[in-house]
Amino acid sequence: MYHVALERVSDYGRETMREGVARLLEPLGGMERYVKPGERVLIKPNLLSAKPAEAAVTTHPELLRAVILEVQKAGGVPLVGDSPGVGSGRRVAERSGMMAVIEETGAEFVPFTEAVPVAASGTFKEFELARPYLEADRLINLPKLKTHEMMTMTCCVKNLFGAVVGTAKAAWHLKAGADKELFADMLLELYRLREPDLNIVDAVVAMEGNGPGSGDPCQVGVLLAGDNAVAVDHVAARVAGIPRQLLYLESAARRMGLAGSNAGEVAVLGPDPDRVLERPLRLPHLSDVQFGLPGFLKNRLRNQFTSRPEVAPGKCELCSVCVKACPPAAIRVQGGRLRFDYQRCIRCFCCRELCPHAALTLRDGWLLWLMKKSGRSI
């Protein structure tokens, strides 16, 4: 059995969080089970973009503080690192409040700037991952529970995509991002190259709606932990109330036969995850109903069966973050406005995810709009 601990924690007060993390880890054997004296322990939070902690875009700094202190108590040497979707890791850590915690606790910030090639044996034969991610003695994964416009949910496995350095993320979106199942396969193959020793999920305040960067904070009031990321993601999805058929990563993990992907082998230590929330998290905008169509129809009807990004009136400040972040270079500034090449657009929605002004919305293709209106699906 793969055990996943679940602990109710009401807020991000410093002592509340410290005590909550200690209670969370106790039934798993405590931090001492995962960290030995002298080991260099990489703590990998979610540093998606430079937003304040209350926006629920990044892992909360008080959870990071509590985990750093537990690592130090076990005799480990805490390192903190990630590669954000846009901008420098240091700037995101400062804006989110995490850098202050790193400095106050004496932990070391290790920016993900140098990539190391790693051979893989699945569909994708090689990844280039951050050196600190590969060289640390232990890896603690610290994701934020959020909805996700491409994968429906982002949690433990998806958070590890931050091990891909900087602009290389765009290359992976271009290579695999046009197909959600293929992108899920890629994420799981990356996960298998270095599985975290421990996963601790920040779900005290989660994100719902158009996550991972443009959704709304939602009080959930729990932390989750376990050493199998796939199993922890399964329990997190139950907390969030997300239907299994919408969980592309979970479906891919079952297809691959990965440990923790069978619900019957996952045991929850703590409250019933199905009863944490009175209502499920609000899901992202349905952006695609072309799955199951043959390839030649997908190509011909792609614009009609999918949503496409466009500018929300009066919000765009022409900062060009989306232009730089777009994997297929389908966005440009021309004539004082953003212009999209929808034939090149792969619908990864990185532009919406990383826009600092929430200036991009989605417009449904007419067949997608018609199917939503009629309540039908493919």
UniProtKB/TrEMBL annotation:
PROSITE patterns: 4FE4S_FER_1, 4FE4S_FER_2. Residues 307-335, 336-365 form the 4Fe-4S ferredoxin-type domain. Keywords: 4Fe-4S, Iron, Iron-sulfur, Metal-binding. Transmembrane segments: none annotated. The keyword Transferase does not apply. It comes from Geomonas paludis. The keyword Flavoprotein does not apply. This is DUF362 domain-containing protein.
